[in-house]
Structures are given as structure tokens and as C-alpha cells.
Amino acid sequence: MIPYGRQEILQADIDAVVDVLHSDFITQGDAVPLFEKRVSDFVGAKYGVAVNSATSALHVACLALGLGRNDWLWVSPISFVASSNCGLYCGANVDFVDIEEESFNICPKKLEEKLLIAQKKDCLPKVVVAVHLCGQSAEMKRIFELSLQFGFKIIEDASHAVGGKYLGEYVGKCRYSAITVFSFHPVKIITTGEGGMALTNDAGLAEKMRLLRSHGITRDEAKMLSEPDGPWYYEQIELGFNYRMTDIHAALGLSQLNRLENYIERRNAIAKYYNSALQQLPLKLPLVNGNCYSTYHLYVIRLQLKKIDLSQREVFEILRSKGIGVNIHYIPIFQHPYYRKFKLKIDEFSNTLKYYNEAITLPIFPSMTKDEQQKVVSALSDVLKR
Ligand SMILES: *Cc1c(COP(=O)(O)O)cnc(C)c1O
């Protein structure tokens, strides 16, 4: 089976991890702060806070922005459940905004319409999560303008978009958001095994997130509420978590970071091949907005169901039977049983439901061979030409 995504681990990665294992500190040593510095320097953000997953990063990001009970978090429903679970962790309410037909990202127009209604009902969101689906940035400039008008904070869920660009700048620079979150899970762009990072230009938010990732404990006298009892003294001043990244993970990330740009180039080259090889088939191929340089974390095709005799499920099953590890990203979050109790009005989400009915993710990863790429194209051609 050709998987839809796969990490690449080279000897240099293994050596970097082994070096840490031989060192004095396998966690809370030098590798984590160095990884934070390298990633934040690379994207042009002031601060990077490394944690044990993007899910944890989303959680501490929401808490740092003050999200809590009676607040609302809004997000697009075509995403991984972590993009909205972070709101529920904070005791907030979660609601969704339909996607754009072309980019599969949150639709700024529908966002504006929904904000105007929420304003009248006095239930505006405190946080909007903009997911950069497949590695293409959402329309951040427009969403940022809306945030100024309606007073919400923006978190970019850039789990797919590490190394991508928007208006000529790296995603993660936080020009149009308070905080950007990266994932380093093995199917994503670069990996630390499990891992994530929150990027920000706001010193206060960075400090808050650092505190929350490590039990809410401080060793900084200036922040303590009491006089230190002695040199061993530390204080817990918030209810935090153990969301720390280890130096073992950070070492792997540092080594992988050296190949980030190369990975994105290889993913773009595969996408370019798919774009030309699939253009005659009854499909809608992914469009990348001129504002964006996509990472192509995912290559999602849309079936033109009116032109073929097969259902999405049949196409999916035939491709799997031919050894093509296709996938679907994602089941609309509100359709999961856990979310059904929130009783959302489904008719608001026509683009989301249409997308879920037509979308199929094709394999794409940096080490994918030309032979594997051709197998995907010929299998898909065979299925759709029946
Ligand atoms: C993978 C993913 C996450 C969660 O990342 P983890 O590092 O596995 O916690 C969140 N949001 C999106 C859009 C993702 O794809």
C-alpha cells in the first residue's frame, strides 16, 4: 500500500537523537530552546513555545488568550477534531463556519455574515481558529480585518502549513494572528515523533504558554507571590499541565528542520505532476490561491460525481484495493457523535457537506518515488474511465 503520507528518517536524524541520549539531559536540556529558536527564527516570529503536540499547543494558546466558560470559539468544520476540542477543554462553547468552495478553508464571507448575526445576539466569539487546510493559508488578511471590527483573537492552526507562505511571508510569523500552532506528528511536514509549537510575537502570551506547559510553576522571583524559602524554592501560580517536549524529540526536529525547504519543494513537484497528469479526468484538482505557497501536506481531489457512475465510497474502495492508500480529510467535526449533542444547524454548511461527499486525499510525501506517483495516476485513471 502506498500510504497517503510518510515521514523520512535519515541517518543524520538518528545520530542527532543518539547524541542527546548520550548527553546529560534527555529532557529540559539545550535542545528544546534551540529548536524553539531555530523554528521561530525561520518563520520570523519572536517567540516559539515547544510542547508535546499541536493539540497541547492549541490548548495553551486558548488559555493564554483567556478563553473560558461562556466564551465562544469558532472554527471551520473540515479539520482534525483537535482544532475545536481545544475550545471545549477550556469550558468554552464551540461553533463552526462553513468552508470556501475553492480553498476548503474558513470562508471569510460566511464568517462575516455569522459575526453580524452573533453581534445582534451578543454572542460574538472570543477566539477564531483559522485552519490552513492541506498547507494553504486561509485568507488571513480579511480574517484579521474582521477580528479588529468584531474584537476576537485569531489562532492559526498551521499543523499542515509548516514552511508554507502567505503574501510572501512564512506562515507562523503571526502578522495576522495572536498565535500560530505547528504540528510535528510523523504524517505532517517535519516530525519530532509527537510534538508541536506555538509561535507568537507577544511576550506576555509566550510567557503564559511556557508557564502552562509546565504545571504553572515558576522559578522567577519577580513572579512569586511569597518570599523564597531558600534557593530550592519555586511556586505554582497557575493550574498548568505537563505538556513539555523532550530533548530527544527536539533533536529529531532540529535535524529535520534542515530539510524543511527541500521537503516543500518535493511536495510541490509531486503536486505539479498530479496537476498535469490528472487534468483530463472528471475531477476538480486543488487550486492554490496566488497569495499562497502551499506545503501540499495533503493533495485533495474532488470527484465530479455527475460525470462518473461511481460513488465516492466506491472510488475510494477500488483505489484501496489497488494498493493506493487514499484517505478522507476530514469528516466534518460536527458530525462526530460527541459533537452532535450541540445540535448545530446543518443547513449552514452546504460547502462542507458537498466537500465531504466528493473529496479524496491522494498519497503525497517527500520520499515518494516517480514510480509510486505514476501508480497513483494510472489507478485513478483506470477507475474513472470505467
Ligand atoms: C494533526 C493536526 C492537529 C493535531 O496535531 P497533533 O500534533 O497530533 O496534536 C491539529 N490540527 C490539525 C489541522 C491537524 O492536522
Question: How would you sum up this structure, described in words?
Answer:
It is built from 13 helices and 15 strands. It has 386 residues and is α/β, with parallel strands linked by helices. The strands form four sheets. It has a seven-stranded mixed β-sheet with strand order 1-9-8-5-4-2-3, sandwiched between helices. It has a three-stranded antiparallel β-sheet with strand order 7-6-13, with no helix packed on it. It has a three-stranded antiparallel β-sheet with strand order 12-14-15. The structure holds pyridoxal-5'-phosphate. Pyridoxal-5'-phosphate binds at residues 53-55, 79-80, 82-83, 131, 157, 159-160, 183, 185, 196.
List the helices and strands and how they pair.
Elements: H1 11-21, H2 31-43, E1 47-51, H3 54-64, E2 72-75, H4 82-89, E3 93-96, H5 108-121, E4 127-131, H6 140-150, E5 153-157, E6 165-166, E7 169-170, E8 179-183, E9 196-200, H7 203-213, E10 217-218, E11 235-236, H8 247-257, H9 260-277, E12 283-284, E13 292-293, E14 299-303, H10 312-321, H11 337-340, H12 350-358, E15 359-362, H13 370-384
Bound molecules: pyridoxal-5'-phosphate (PLP).
Overall pLDDT level: 97
Which residues form runs of ≥5 with pLDDT under 50? none
Bound molecules: pyridoxal-5'-phosphate
Instruction: Provide the succession of SSEs.
Output: HHEHEHEHEHEEEEEHEEHHEEEHHHEH
Termini gap: 22 Å
What is the global morphology? globular
User: How would you characterize the largest beta sheet?
Assistant: 7 strands, mixed
- Report the β-strand fraction as a percent range: 5-15%
**What is the CA-based Rg, rounded?**
22 Å
Please estimate the helix content.
25-40%
Structure classification: alpha/beta
- For the biggest β-sheet, the strand order reads 1-9-8-5-4-2-3
Compute the number of helices: 13
